[in-house]
Amino acid sequence: MRPVAAVALAGGAVAAGFAARRLAQPARPTATVPTLVAAPDTAAAEATGVQQPRLAGARGHIPALEGLRGLAAIGIITTHVAFVTRMSYGTPVRRLYGRLDMLVAVFFAKTGFLLWRAHSDHARRGRPGTARAVVPYLRARLVRIMPAYSVLVAVAMVLLPQNRINGPAVWLRNLSLTQIYQRKFLVSGLTHAWSLAVEMAYYLALPALWSGMKNLRGDRARWRLPAVGAFGLSGLLFPLIPWQRLRLLPRGVNDQILPPSFSAWFASGMLLAELATARPGLLARLSRGPYARWGWWTAGAGALLATTSTRWFSEGFHHPSGREYASRNGLTAAMAFFFLGPVVLAPAGTRFRVLESAPLQAIGRWSYGIFLWHLIVLHYAFPLTRTSLWARRMGVIWPVTVAGSIAVGAASYRFIEEPARKLLSPHA
Fold this sequence. Notes:
By secondary structure, the protein is mainly α. It contains 15 helices and no strands. Helix 3 (about 65-85) packs parallel to helix 14, helix 5 (about 105-125) runs parallel beside helix 8 (about 195-210) and helix 9 (about 225-235) runs antiparallel to helix 10. The longest helix has about 30 residues, at about 395-425. The radius of gyration is 22 Å and the shape is globular. Residues about 1-50 have low confidence and may be disordered.
C-alpha cells in the first residue's frame, strides 16, 4: 500500500489498540453496557453452558447503523451537488466533496451485514440447511426496493423535459434495473440508480452464496471468513481484467459499474456479520469502551481521504484505469469496514448518542427515499434559487437540496414505502 494510506490506516489501528489497552481492564457491570448475557453465541457454548459476551451486531435491530446510513445519504448528496456546482476538484476540501459518493460502500456493506448475519449465525450454531428460504427473501427485497423506485422512474421520465424522448425500451431497462448492462444508459434523474441495479444483482446472487457455504457450519464454520474474503477479493480483481480488449463484453458497456466490481463492498459487511456471530476475538476487544470507536473511525476516514490524493487517483469524474479503480474500491471497502465495525462489534448495550439521536434516526429511516429523490430535488434547486447550472454556488444549492431531499424522502417513506410494505408483506 502507498505510504500515506498505510500511515492513515495504521494510525487508526494504533489508536484503536491504545484505547483498547486502556479500557481492557475488567469493568464494573452497568445497566447500560452489560458484559455477559444469558444466551451463548456458539454451539459449543450451548453444549457446555458457558456464557460468552454477546456483541451488539449478533442479532436484533442496531439503531446506530441507521444513523450511519443517514450520514452516508447526506454525503452522497454532497458529492452530486459539488459536481454540478464545479466544487468537486481543485483543493483538498473540494476533492473530498467529490469523493463522498464513495459512501455508497456504507450502504452496500450494511446490506451485506444485515442479509448475511442470519446465515452466519445459523452456521455457527451448527444447524443444517440455510437460515432463510429463497422465495420469501426475494419477495421481501422486491417489496423494499421496487415500489418507491418504480414511482421515481415514472416521475423522472414524465416530469423532466430531457427524458421525454425516451421510448419504451429505456423505460423497461430502468424499471427492471438492467440499464447498467447497456451502453449509454444514463437518464436524467436516474443516473444514481446504477447502485440499485448493482444491489439488485447482489440480492439475486446471495442465495447462491449462502447455499454454496451451507456445509461450512459447526466446527467447519472457521472456513467461512476466508471464503467471504475470497468473494470480496474477486471484486478487486475484476476491474483488472481488460474485458473490452479481450472482447468479453459488448462494446461500450462499462465493466467498472458491473456488479462483480463491488463484491469487496458487500463482503466488508459480510465479514462483519461473520465476526459478530462468532466467539468474540481480537477485533471485538478493539471495539470495547467509548473511545475505542474513534480509532476505527479514524482508520475509515484515513481510507476515504486516501482516495482524494491526486498522486494516486485521478481528480473529478474521470474514467480511471482498472488498477486505479481496484485500488479505490479496496480503500472504500476498508472505509466501510472501519465505519461499521465499532458499531456491530461493540458489546451488546453499547450506546452511540449521536448516531442514535432522533434527527439521525429519522434521516436513516428515510434514507432510501432521500437517496432516490435527491437528483430530482437537485434539478429543481437551481431554478428555485435562481441559480444557473454549473454556477459555483454550492453554499446555496446544498442546503436547499438536502432539506428538500429529506422532506421528499420522509414523504416517500410515509406514503409509498410503508404502505407498500404493509400491503405486500404484512407479516414482514
